[in-house]
């Protein structure tokens, strides 16, 4: 990964950090060291889509308390989705599709009352997406949907 000094970016990145389509090849955990406390406390949009980021979805993303949109789709992310993402009470848009994620959707996702879009398609995920308070949730998964009930959404795909 080439040197990216996010702490020197100033007000431009205080709310939005969009590094999508940059061909960044690195472990996603490296980004934690690059973000200043100010950026971490005010960041509302984090878009790292369409790169070559590897490793697991890091727990520290759950510390971005003002995050409204997280886009990590079309990378090389693997492993489990950390339950800490379910603590992002302002999160409205979560895009994790087209990675190599596996295992269950964290139960903590049921706490995401502001969630409008959850895109987890084209991974190896399974389980139940707990009810969330949002009546306008759009759940996007792969075409291998097993069932989608009213009280919960079960799937494998």
Automatic annotation (TrEMBL):
Gene Ontology cellular component terms for the protein in this record: membrane
Major location category of this protein: membrane
Highest rank taxon of the organism: Eukaryota
Entry keywords, A to Z: Glycoprotein, Leucine-rich repeat, Membrane, Repeat, Signal, Transmembrane, Transmembrane helix
Coiled coil region boundaries: none
Membrane-protein topology: Single-pass type I membrane protein
Subcellular localization: Membrane
UniProt-listed PANTHER family: LRR RECEPTOR-LIKE KINASE, RECEPTOR LIKE PROTEIN 30-LIKE
The name this protein goes by in its record: Uncharacterized protein
Taxonomic source organism: Ensete ventricosum
């Amino acid at each position: 990964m080439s040197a990216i000094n996010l702490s020197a970016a100033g007000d431009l990145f205080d709310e939005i950090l969009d590094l999508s389509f940059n061909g960044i090849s690195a472990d996603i955990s490296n980004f934690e060291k690059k973000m200043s406390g100010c950026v971490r406390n005010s960041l509302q949009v984090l878009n790292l889509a369409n790169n070559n980021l590897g490793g697991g979805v890091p727990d520290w993303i759950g510390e971005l308390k003002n995050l409204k949109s997280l886009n990590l789709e079309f990378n090389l992310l693997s492993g489990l989705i950390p339950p800490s993402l379910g603590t992002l009470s302002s999160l409205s848009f979560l895009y994790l599709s087209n990675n190599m994620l596996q295992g269950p959707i964290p139960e903590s996702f049921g706490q995401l009352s502001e969630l409008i879009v959850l895109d987890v398609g084209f991974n190896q995920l399974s389980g139940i997406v707990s009810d969330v308070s949002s009546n306008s949730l759009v759940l996007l998964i792969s075409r291998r949907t097993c069932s989608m009930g009213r009280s919960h959404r079960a799937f494998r795909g």
